[in-house]
Amino acid sequence: MAEPLPFTPDLSVKPVVVPFFDQPTNTISYIVKDPASDACAVVDSVMDIDYAAGRITYDGADKIIAYIREHGWRLEWLIETHVHADHLSAAPYIQTKLGGKLGIGENITIVQDTFGKIFNEGTEFQRDGSQFDRLFKDGDSYKIGGMTAHVIHTPGHTPACMTHCIGDAAFVGDTLFMPDGGSARADFPGGDARTLYRSIQRVLALPGEMRLFMCHDYGPNGRDIQWETTVADEREHNIHVGKGIGEDEFVKMRESRDATLDMPRLIIPSLQVNMRAGQLPPADDSGKTFLKVPVNTL
Ligand SMILES: [Fe+2]
Q1: What pLDDT sits at residue 3?
Q2: What distance in angstroms lies between residue 272's CA and the mean position of ligand 1's atoms?
Q3: Are strands 147-153 and 162-166 parallel, antiparallel or unpaired?
Q4: Which 8-state DSSP code applies to residue 248?
Q5: Model confidence pLDDT, tens digit, residues 120-129
Q6: 228/248 Cα distance (integer angstroms)
Q7: Residue 272 predicted with pLDDT over 90
Q8: Buried b vs exposed e over 225-261: b needs ≥16 C-beta within 10 Å?
Protein backbone atom coordinates (compact mmCIF):
# COMPACT_ATOMS: atom_id res chain seq x y z
CA MET A 1 0.00 0.00 0.00
CA ALA A 2 1.12 3.56 -0.71
CA GLU A 3 1.90 5.59 2.38
CA PRO A 4 -0.49 8.47 3.13
CA LEU A 5 0.48 12.01 2.16
CA PRO A 6 2.37 13.77 4.96
CA PHE A 7 0.67 17.16 4.41
CA THR A 8 -2.49 18.85 3.13
CA PRO A 9 -1.96 20.65 -0.20
CA ASP A 10 -2.96 24.34 -0.35
CA LEU A 11 -4.20 24.86 -3.90
CA SER A 12 -4.91 28.56 -3.30
CA VAL A 13 -1.16 29.20 -3.64
CA LYS A 14 -0.27 29.33 -7.34
CA PRO A 15 3.47 29.70 -7.93
CA VAL A 16 4.79 31.21 -11.14
CA VAL A 17 6.60 28.39 -12.98
CA VAL A 18 9.12 29.21 -15.73
CA PRO A 19 10.41 26.18 -17.68
CA PHE A 20 13.78 25.87 -19.44
CA PHE A 21 14.17 22.94 -21.84
CA ASP A 22 17.63 21.44 -22.40
CA GLN A 23 17.57 19.81 -25.81
CA PRO A 24 20.71 17.60 -25.58
CA THR A 25 19.42 15.79 -22.46
CA ASN A 26 15.64 16.34 -22.80
CA THR A 27 15.65 17.84 -19.30
CA ILE A 28 13.30 20.56 -18.11
CA SER A 29 14.62 22.89 -15.40
CA TYR A 30 12.27 25.28 -13.62
CA ILE A 31 12.24 28.58 -11.83
CA VAL A 32 9.43 28.47 -9.23
CA LYS A 33 8.48 31.90 -7.90
CA ASP A 34 6.31 33.06 -5.03
CA PRO A 35 3.58 35.27 -6.61
CA ALA A 36 3.47 37.38 -3.44
CA SER A 37 7.18 38.23 -3.15
CA ASP A 38 10.41 38.22 -5.19
CA ALA A 39 11.54 34.85 -3.77
CA CYS A 40 12.17 31.93 -6.09
CA ALA A 41 13.75 28.47 -6.35
CA VAL A 42 15.45 26.64 -9.20
CA VAL A 43 14.61 22.96 -9.71
CA ASP A 44 16.97 20.57 -11.56
CA SER A 45 19.35 22.86 -13.42
CA VAL A 46 21.65 21.51 -16.16
CA MET A 47 25.38 22.01 -16.78
CA ASP A 48 26.37 21.60 -20.44
CA ILE A 49 28.93 18.95 -21.35
CA ASP A 50 30.52 18.03 -24.65
CA TYR A 51 31.42 14.55 -23.45
CA ALA A 52 33.57 13.64 -26.46
CA ALA A 53 35.71 16.73 -25.89
CA GLY A 54 35.57 16.65 -22.06
CA ARG A 55 34.37 20.27 -22.18
CA ILE A 56 32.01 21.80 -19.64
CA THR A 57 30.10 25.04 -20.21
CA TYR A 58 27.20 26.87 -18.62
CA ASP A 59 25.05 28.33 -21.42
CA GLY A 60 21.84 26.79 -20.07
CA ALA A 61 22.51 27.82 -16.47
CA ASP A 62 23.45 31.33 -17.62
CA LYS A 63 19.98 31.69 -19.19
CA ILE A 64 18.35 30.85 -15.86
CA ILE A 65 20.66 33.24 -13.99
CA ALA A 66 19.95 36.04 -16.50
CA TYR A 67 16.18 35.48 -16.21
CA ILE A 68 16.28 35.73 -12.41
CA ARG A 69 18.47 38.85 -12.51
CA GLU A 70 16.39 40.60 -15.18
CA HIS A 71 13.26 40.15 -13.09
CA GLY A 72 14.96 41.22 -9.86
CA TRP A 73 14.07 37.92 -8.16
CA ARG A 74 15.85 36.48 -5.16
CA LEU A 75 17.01 32.86 -5.27
CA GLU A 76 16.35 31.04 -2.00
CA TRP A 77 16.66 27.38 -2.97
CA LEU A 78 18.33 25.12 -5.51
CA ILE A 79 16.46 21.82 -5.53
CA GLU A 80 17.61 18.52 -6.98
CA THR A 81 14.67 16.10 -7.24
CA HIS A 82 17.25 13.26 -7.29
CA VAL A 83 20.77 12.28 -8.38
CA HIS A 84 20.35 12.45 -12.14
CA ALA A 85 22.04 9.88 -14.34
CA ASP A 86 21.48 11.63 -17.64
CA HIS A 87 22.65 15.20 -17.11
CA LEU A 88 25.02 17.13 -14.89
CA SER A 89 23.67 19.57 -12.32
CA ALA A 90 24.59 23.26 -12.53
CA ALA A 91 23.33 23.98 -9.00
CA PRO A 92 26.69 24.97 -7.47
CA TYR A 93 27.46 27.24 -10.44
CA ILE A 94 24.12 29.04 -10.04
CA GLN A 95 24.65 29.17 -6.27
CA THR A 96 27.97 31.00 -6.66
CA LYS A 97 26.22 33.62 -8.83
CA LEU A 98 22.90 34.02 -6.99
CA GLY A 99 23.19 32.39 -3.55
CA GLY A 100 20.46 30.13 -2.19
CA LYS A 101 20.58 26.79 -0.39
CA LEU A 102 21.08 23.47 -2.17
CA GLY A 103 18.77 20.62 -1.15
CA ILE A 104 18.26 16.94 -2.05
CA GLY A 105 16.68 13.84 -0.44
CA GLU A 106 18.44 12.37 2.59
CA ASN A 107 19.01 9.07 0.80
CA ILE A 108 21.72 10.81 -1.20
CA THR A 109 23.96 9.04 1.32
CA ILE A 110 22.90 5.65 -0.11
CA VAL A 111 23.62 6.88 -3.65
CA GLN A 112 27.00 8.27 -2.54
CA ASP A 113 27.88 4.97 -0.91
CA THR A 114 26.88 2.93 -3.99
CA PHE A 115 28.65 5.10 -6.55
CA GLY A 116 31.55 5.97 -4.26
CA LYS A 117 32.34 2.23 -4.49
CA ILE A 118 31.65 1.95 -8.23
CA PHE A 119 34.01 4.87 -8.97
CA ASN A 120 36.48 3.71 -6.31
CA GLU A 121 36.53 7.11 -4.64
CA GLY A 122 38.96 7.52 -1.80
CA THR A 123 38.22 8.50 1.77
CA GLU A 124 38.25 12.18 0.83
CA PHE A 125 34.87 11.65 -0.84
CA GLN A 126 32.37 12.21 1.97
CA ARG A 127 29.32 9.92 1.82
CA ASP A 128 27.27 11.79 4.41
CA GLY A 129 25.51 14.28 2.12
CA SER A 130 27.58 17.14 3.56
CA GLN A 131 28.13 18.60 0.07
CA PHE A 132 24.48 19.80 0.25
CA ASP A 133 23.00 22.49 2.51
CA ARG A 134 19.86 20.51 3.35
CA LEU A 135 18.89 16.84 3.23
CA PHE A 136 15.11 16.41 3.03
CA LYS A 137 13.11 13.66 4.75
CA ASP A 138 9.60 12.58 3.83
CA GLY A 139 7.16 15.19 5.15
CA ASP A 140 9.74 17.97 5.51
CA SER A 141 8.83 21.49 4.49
CA TYR A 142 10.72 24.67 3.65
CA LYS A 143 9.82 28.22 2.66
CA ILE A 144 10.19 30.04 -0.67
CA GLY A 145 9.21 33.57 0.32
CA GLY A 146 5.69 33.17 1.73
CA MET A 147 5.08 29.78 0.10
CA THR A 148 5.54 26.51 1.94
CA ALA A 149 7.09 23.68 -0.08
CA HIS A 150 6.34 20.11 1.07
CA VAL A 151 8.59 17.19 0.28
CA ILE A 152 7.36 13.64 -0.37
CA HIS A 153 9.81 10.75 -0.61
CA THR A 154 9.09 9.02 -3.93
CA PRO A 155 11.83 6.38 -4.38
CA GLY A 156 11.97 3.64 -7.00
CA HIS A 157 13.77 5.33 -9.88
CA THR A 158 16.53 6.06 -7.34
CA PRO A 159 16.54 5.82 -3.50
CA ALA A 160 16.82 9.60 -3.06
CA CYS A 161 13.94 10.74 -5.32
CA MET A 162 11.70 13.39 -3.79
CA THR A 163 8.59 15.11 -5.13
CA HIS A 164 8.36 18.78 -4.17
CA CYS A 165 4.81 20.15 -3.73
CA ILE A 166 4.53 23.93 -3.74
CA GLY A 167 0.96 25.30 -3.62
CA ASP A 168 -0.93 23.85 -6.59
CA ALA A 169 2.28 22.68 -8.34
CA ALA A 170 4.31 19.50 -7.85
CA PHE A 171 7.75 18.75 -9.28
CA VAL A 172 7.90 15.00 -9.67
CA GLY A 173 11.46 14.51 -10.93
CA ASP A 174 11.53 11.15 -12.73
CA THR A 175 8.74 9.58 -10.68
CA LEU A 176 6.37 10.09 -13.62
CA PHE A 177 6.60 11.16 -17.24
CA MET A 178 3.85 12.79 -19.28
CA PRO A 179 0.85 10.42 -19.61
CA ASP A 180 1.98 9.13 -23.03
CA GLY A 181 5.56 8.65 -21.70
CA GLY A 182 4.57 6.55 -18.67
CA SER A 183 7.27 6.24 -16.05
CA ALA A 184 11.05 6.32 -15.66
CA ARG A 185 13.24 3.21 -15.50
CA ALA A 186 13.78 1.55 -12.15
CA ASP A 187 16.88 -0.54 -12.87
CA PHE A 188 19.71 1.71 -11.72
CA PRO A 189 21.57 0.54 -8.57
CA GLY A 190 19.12 1.20 -5.70
CA GLY A 191 16.13 1.40 -8.05
CA ASP A 192 13.08 -0.87 -7.71
CA ALA A 193 9.94 -1.13 -9.85
CA ARG A 194 7.60 -2.11 -6.99
CA THR A 195 8.85 0.79 -4.89
CA LEU A 196 8.36 3.12 -7.86
CA TYR A 197 4.75 1.97 -8.30
CA ARG A 198 4.00 2.76 -4.65
CA SER A 199 5.66 6.17 -4.94
CA ILE A 200 3.60 6.95 -8.03
CA GLN A 201 0.43 6.08 -6.09
CA ARG A 202 1.37 8.75 -3.54
CA VAL A 203 1.70 11.34 -6.31
CA LEU A 204 -1.62 10.23 -7.81
CA ALA A 205 -3.21 10.71 -4.37
CA LEU A 206 -2.61 14.47 -4.65
CA PRO A 207 -5.66 16.56 -5.65
CA GLY A 208 -6.72 15.95 -9.27
CA GLU A 209 -6.34 19.59 -10.32
CA MET A 210 -2.78 19.84 -9.03
CA ARG A 211 -0.28 20.81 -11.75
CA LEU A 212 2.53 18.30 -12.29
CA PHE A 213 5.87 19.31 -13.80
CA MET A 214 8.10 16.68 -15.38
CA CYS A 215 11.91 16.56 -15.28
CA HIS A 216 12.10 14.94 -18.72
CA ASP A 217 10.15 14.58 -21.92
CA TYR A 218 11.20 12.76 -25.06
CA GLY A 219 8.23 13.66 -27.28
CA PRO A 220 6.96 10.09 -27.78
CA ASN A 221 5.42 9.25 -31.16
CA GLY A 222 6.76 12.44 -32.67
CA ARG A 223 4.70 14.89 -30.61
CA ASP A 224 6.14 18.25 -29.50
CA ILE A 225 7.97 18.39 -26.16
CA GLN A 226 5.62 18.89 -23.18
CA TRP A 227 6.30 19.09 -19.45
CA GLU A 228 3.10 20.04 -17.66
CA THR A 229 0.06 17.92 -16.85
CA THR A 230 -2.29 17.33 -13.90
CA VAL A 231 -2.78 14.56 -11.38
CA ALA A 232 -6.23 13.84 -12.87
CA ASP A 233 -4.73 13.50 -16.36
CA GLU A 234 -2.05 11.08 -15.12
CA ARG A 235 -4.61 9.01 -13.20
CA GLU A 236 -6.73 8.64 -16.30
CA HIS A 237 -4.27 8.49 -19.16
CA ASN A 238 -0.79 7.44 -17.98
CA ILE A 239 0.15 4.47 -20.14
CA HIS A 240 2.04 2.68 -17.33
CA VAL A 241 -0.10 3.39 -14.25
CA GLY A 242 -3.32 5.04 -15.45
CA LYS A 243 -6.87 3.66 -15.14
CA GLY A 244 -5.92 1.61 -12.11
CA ILE A 245 -3.19 -0.58 -13.65
CA GLY A 246 -2.12 -2.82 -10.76
CA GLU A 247 1.21 -3.17 -9.02
CA ASP A 248 2.12 -6.63 -10.34
CA GLU A 249 1.24 -5.68 -13.91
CA PHE A 250 3.33 -2.52 -13.63
CA VAL A 251 6.32 -4.36 -12.16
CA LYS A 252 6.25 -6.97 -14.92
CA MET A 253 6.05 -4.28 -17.62
CA ARG A 254 8.71 -2.05 -16.01
CA GLU A 255 11.24 -4.83 -15.43
CA SER A 256 10.91 -6.33 -18.90
CA ARG A 257 11.16 -2.91 -20.49
CA ASP A 258 14.18 -1.88 -18.38
CA ALA A 259 16.01 -5.04 -19.47
CA THR A 260 16.00 -3.66 -23.04
CA LEU A 261 17.33 -0.15 -22.24
CA ASP A 262 20.90 0.99 -22.82
CA MET A 263 22.72 3.04 -20.18
CA PRO A 264 22.07 6.78 -20.55
CA ARG A 265 24.77 8.48 -22.66
CA LEU A 266 25.95 10.70 -19.80
CA ILE A 267 25.56 8.34 -16.84
CA ILE A 268 29.30 8.13 -16.11
CA PRO A 269 30.07 11.87 -15.90
CA SER A 270 26.63 12.64 -14.43
CA LEU A 271 26.95 10.39 -11.41
CA GLN A 272 30.50 11.47 -10.58
CA VAL A 273 29.45 15.12 -10.60
CA ASN A 274 25.93 14.86 -9.19
CA MET A 275 26.89 12.67 -6.22
CA ARG A 276 29.17 15.62 -5.31
CA ALA A 277 26.20 18.03 -5.47
CA GLY A 278 27.24 19.16 -8.95
CA GLN A 279 30.92 19.75 -8.15
CA LEU A 280 33.65 18.31 -10.34
CA PRO A 281 36.03 15.83 -8.66
CA PRO A 282 39.03 17.53 -7.01
CA ALA A 283 41.98 18.37 -9.27
CA ASP A 284 44.98 16.04 -9.15
CA ASP A 285 48.57 17.03 -8.26
CA SER A 286 49.02 18.66 -11.67
CA GLY A 287 45.99 20.89 -11.09
CA LYS A 288 43.97 19.09 -13.78
CA THR A 289 40.49 17.67 -13.28
CA PHE A 290 39.58 14.20 -14.55
CA LEU A 291 36.46 12.05 -14.71
CA LYS A 292 36.83 8.27 -14.54
CA VAL A 293 35.35 5.58 -16.77
CA PRO A 294 34.91 2.34 -14.80
CA VAL A 295 35.38 -0.53 -17.25
CA ASN A 296 32.80 -3.34 -17.31
CA THR A 297 31.22 -2.18 -14.04
CA LEU A 298 27.91 -0.50 -14.83
FE1 LIG B 1 16.65 10.58 -13.34
Answers
A1: 77
A2: 14
A3: antiparallel
A4: H
A5: 998 889 999 9
A6: 28
A7: yes
A8: ebbbbbbebbbeebbbbeeeeebeebbebbeebeeee
